[in-house]
Design brief:
This protein is α+β, with helices and mostly antiparallel strands and 176 residues long. The chain has 5 helices and 8 strands. The protein has an 8-stranded antiparallel beta sheet with strand order 1-2-3-4-8-7-6-5. Strand 3 and strand 4 form a beta hairpin. The radius of gyration is 19 Å and the shape is globular. The model is unreliable at 2-23 (pLDDT under 50).
Length: 176
């Protein structure tokens, strides 16, 4: 083996853990973000990094990932675990709200969402959920739990626009 080959192998051996650590770092940050464990400033810094294209292991998944669902999905190279669920997809509904998104068997969405609501505890339906159902014929569940620091845990199952999907995560700032 030549010195160049040996040096290259040694360099690659050093870079591989760094690349894995960067992925773990993004997945860990996403997990903490989704579980409402970051401050608003930390969320802003993370979204700024995404916008500056400094994060390469988390990118827009495109419409193929969500199919006909009304979800803006981003895909992580590493699995993300939040609120007892694991997925590599995150629904970015805004720059201050991100929800872990995962497919479930059609017809099981509400049962799976309710199980997450029970696991988190202390959640209540969106204040105008009954009116949305009555006025607009909306179907699903939208539960929230206010947390300190103007953060809100959220479980959203939107059968009207995203059947077959369950989302759970955090909103940083005021939400209805």
């Amino acid at each position: 083996m030549s010195i160049k080959t040996t040096t290259l192998c040694a360099l690659l051996g050093l870079l591989a853990p760094a690349a894995a650590m960067a992925q773990d770092s993004t997945a860990t940050t996403l997990s903490r973000l989704l579980e409402c464990k970051l401050t608003a400033d930390q969320v802003a810094a993370f979204t700024d990094s995404i916008n500056a294209e400094e994060i390469t292991d988390f990118a827009h998944a495109g419409s193929a990932a969500s199919g006909d669902a009304a979800l803006s999905l981003w895909k992580s190279d590493a699995p993300i675990t939040a609120w007892g669920e694991t997925s590599d997809l995150v629904h970015l509904s805004s720059t201050t709200e991100m929800l872990l998104a995962f497919k479930v068997t059609p017809g099981q969405e509400l049962a799976r969402g309710k199980a997450i609501v029970d696991r988190i505890g202390g959640m209540s339906p969106r204040p105008d959920q009954a009116a949305m159902e009555e006025t607009y014929g909306w179907k699903g569940m939208d539960y929230r739990k206010a947390l300190s620091g103007n953060r809100n845990a959220r479980v959203l199952v939107d059968l009207s626009y995203s059947p077959g999907w369950v989302t759970v995560g955090c909103a940083y700032g005021d939400i209805l």
